[in-house]
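Please, structure for the following, as tokens.
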Amino acid sequence: MDVWAQLLDGFAIALTAQNLLWALVGVTLGTAVGVLPGVGPAVTIALLLPITTKVDASGALIMFAGVYYGAMYGGSTTSILLNTPGESATIVTALEGNQMARRGRAGPALATSAIGSFVAGTIATIGLTFLSPLVVELGLKFGPPEYFALMIVAFTTVSSVLGDSTLRGITSLFLGLAIGLVGIDNQTGQARFAFGVPQLLDGIEVVTIAVGLFAVGETIYFASKMNQVQEKLEAITGSIWMRAEDWKRSWKPWIRGTLIGFPFGSIPAGGAEIPTFLSYAIEKKLARNPEEFGQGAIEGVAGPEAANNASSTGTMVPLLTLGLPTSATAAIMLSAFQQYGLQPGPLLFEANAALVWGLIASFYVGNAMLLVLNLPLVGLWVKLLAIPKPQLYAGILVFATMGVYGMRQSPFDVFLLYGVGIVGFLMRRFGFPAAPVVVGMILGPLAEEQMRRALAISQGDPRIFITHPISAGLLALAVAVILLPWLWRRFAARRGSA
């Protein structure tokens, strides 16, 4: 009953006129940036961070969350009509969705995507509602050794899952850890990695790094590729509504996709790519007409889209309960919390219960808003695809510059922004994931603090991390995350050569 009471209190907060407006702004922006190729939720939230400092915490976080899951809805439009996935998680949607569009069935493809996202988002939010208190109870039993080990797990999983190479992911992580150490050490008072630059003594703002990597870096990258990709927009012909046969073929994939996506998002293993591909493979296996796959099977849109949306909602479980971001957007969300002096984790549910449950309640509200926005107004979202790309990318750079400069009115921050943007472009060009940089920068100082506390408790004995069962188990999990993929590749290579 306690959960129900807290959820009702959350609805009382989420349904205020002010927060309803922020939710509407968030889901509308999210849908728009999901539709626009190359502009994802991570970029958008990074851009909004510096210009929302005057907004109250609950309203801003409700808006950011709306941007996050709203982009999952909008991303299907680009995949289906342009065959251009905005994010890696929507690659699978493009496989069948674009084929349906070419056959004149863009409407049902967009409809099953929107309704599937609503079903998945709602069921996943119910899972979030009842799973979060259980994870919080576990988290409250954690001491410094356990928290340090948990952050090591976050480092390894994010580095391994995000990106094509574990080595590149870990390289990005260490770059973020180094950036997080810049400034004055709180315990010793010594300057670290400041190189005699006075502006670096206070450390580097997370917002500057996030905007530089995700907004400026991504913009430069997409601008460099702009003339290399020929986009062909498929027209929406006929009715957008699904036939009875479409409903019959879609509802089971929606449920299966949700049940696959939510656990993958909830565990600190991150990424929506695996559950979407897994959902696609399962639907192809279970389909009555598997020969339709590759030709425009509606199951191949319904299942992966549900898995994608459920996974994005699931990432809120480790983020809110343990403070662990498992995706690029979740990492930016974590910096948004910290911008307001909030640290996600078990104590957040005790110290700021109203804010947390208001945020969770807004997920239910936002999903209903998105269903209304995505079905009747699909024609409006399609028109966004006609925005000239040079103007779009120029606008992103202008907002990024204004936002970062406006935080401290420092020209140094602007130079740093574009320096980081060039680094972000090079990282994207050579396949280095950007998310581990932000995760390392945010969690690095926290991990250092917990490690120091643990060593102070044990009087400098590092065995404290392996003598505590939970921390030892978590460290073993971190090692497994790094070694198992490598061992599997070695095993597969030997079998292939045999």
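The two ends are 59 Å apart (CA to CA). The chain has a mean pLDDT of 84.
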